Amino acid sequence: MSALSRHNVRQAGHGRPLLFSHGYGCSQDVWRFVAPAFEATHRVVLMDVAGCSPASHEAYDMARHATLHGHAQDIISVCEAAQLKGTVLVAHSVSTMSAVLAARKRPDLFSALVLLAPSPSYLNDGVYRGGFERHDIDDLLHVLEANHFKWARMMAPVVMGEENSQALTDELADSFCNMDEAVAKHFAQVTFLSDHRLDLEGLSIPALMMQCTRDALAPPFIGHYMQSCWPQLQVTQLQATGHCPHMSAPQETIEVLRTFLAHRLSSESIEASHGC
Fold first, then answer.
1. Contact indicator for 161, 241 with CB cutoff of 8 Å
2. Catalytic status, residue 243
3. What is the pLDDT of residue 265?
4. Distance CA 14, CA 60 (A)
5. Coil, strand, or helix at residue 24?
6. What are the tens digits of pLDDT across the range 63-103?
7. Does the keyword Coiled coil apply (predicted)?
8. pLDDT band at residue 270, thresholds of 50, 70 and 90?
9. What one-character DSSP code corresponds to residue 84?
10. Residue 65 known to be catalytic
11. Which of 48, 74, 199, 215 is catalytic?
């Protein structure tokens, strides 16, 4: 099966490619409020992350996806199969670190990264404040192991943010529930226990980070930390609350992304005129 089929790739529009990669337990459908706004100016490419949607269950391999490096290779495979060049990779939540790994491995494929609510590590470690103690993560994983559906209903309002639409929270919970139980447990462990802080060091690719207000999964410390590691990273504080601004605050997300893309095109034109 080709990478395009494995990840249920859908494309629309023409121009500089925008590849959208969603977070844990969702599908490409979560971009429905944002992606269409760019079809007039960009080649919009949507993919399903392995194991998250019913369409991508068979794409998940316990060995390949035992780390986020497997998901990073999936992104690279989609870019190669779709013949994407100069791609701006837009990623959410756990996919942000897959995006970082993909850009480190194949910098020739990407012109910029856009990271929504990223975190290189969810665990507190000395002065580093990822937001969770190890026992917090162990408790979350224990609930998931014991009752997948209870975990989904418990986590959805935490992820979406209690201030946001109940309909969106219910949609997220349903999406979590639709995951294969074994995959849900495995991918959750990979997500919450991964540590990619060292992978931020030495990055030179231009990037935008959208940081949400009152995000239970990515506290304010994360933005300061990531920018200290990655000078080319622009951090924008959104008014949006929760962990899913592309769903709860799509217009704000569109405006910030559009401004970043316009700035990147302008910068590239100046660099080209100076022979850089």
1. yes
2. yes
3. 73
4. 30
5. coil
6. 999 999 999 999 999 999 999 999 999 999 999 999 999 99
7. no
8. low
9. -
10. no
11. 215
Q: Which backbone phi and psi does 39 adopt, to 5 degrees?
A: -70, -25
Distance CA 178, CA 53 (A): 7
- Structurally, how many domains does the chain consist of? 1
Task: Please report, as a single letter, which amino acid is at residue 144.
Answer: L
Q: Is the pLDDT of residue 129 over 80?
A: yes
Residue 248 has a pLDDT of: 98
Contact assessment for residue 246 and residue 222, using Cβ atoms and an 8 Å cutoff: no
Residue with tokens 């080319």: 232
What is the tens place of the pLDDT at every residue in 247-263?
999 999 999 999 999 98
Q: Which of 135-158 are b and which e, b meaning 16 or more Cβ less than 10 Å from the residue's Cβ?
A: eebeebbeebeeebeebbeebbbe
The strands making up 233-241's β-sheet, listed across from edge to edge, are 10-12, 42-47, 16-21, 87-92, 110-116, 207-213, 233-241
**Which of 93, 98, 119, 194 is flagged as catalytic?**
93
Tokens of 49: 């992350």
Do the bridges between strand 42-47 and strand 10-12 make them parallel or antiparallel, or are there none, so unpaired? antiparallel
Instruction: Decide if 215 is catalytic.
Output: yes
* Phi, psi of 19, deg, nearest 5: -105, 125
- Coil/strand/helix, residue 239: strand
199 lies in which domain range? 3-273
DSSP-derived 3-state class of residue 174: helix
Dist. CA 97–CA 135, nearest whole Å: 23
Task: Name residue 228's beta-bridge partners.
Answer: none
Q: How do 110-116 and 10-12 pair as beta strands?
A: unpaired
Q: Cβ distance 243 to 159 under 8 Å?
A: yes
Active-site choice (42, 243, 246, 248): 243
Q: What is the CATH number of the domain that holds 263?
A: 3.40.50.1820
The backbone torsions φ and ψ at residue 180, rounded to the nearest 5 degrees and listed phi first, read: -60, 135
- Asked if 11 contacts 19 with a C-beta cutoff of 8 angstroms, the reply is no
Among 134, 119, 92, which Cα is nearest to 195's?
119
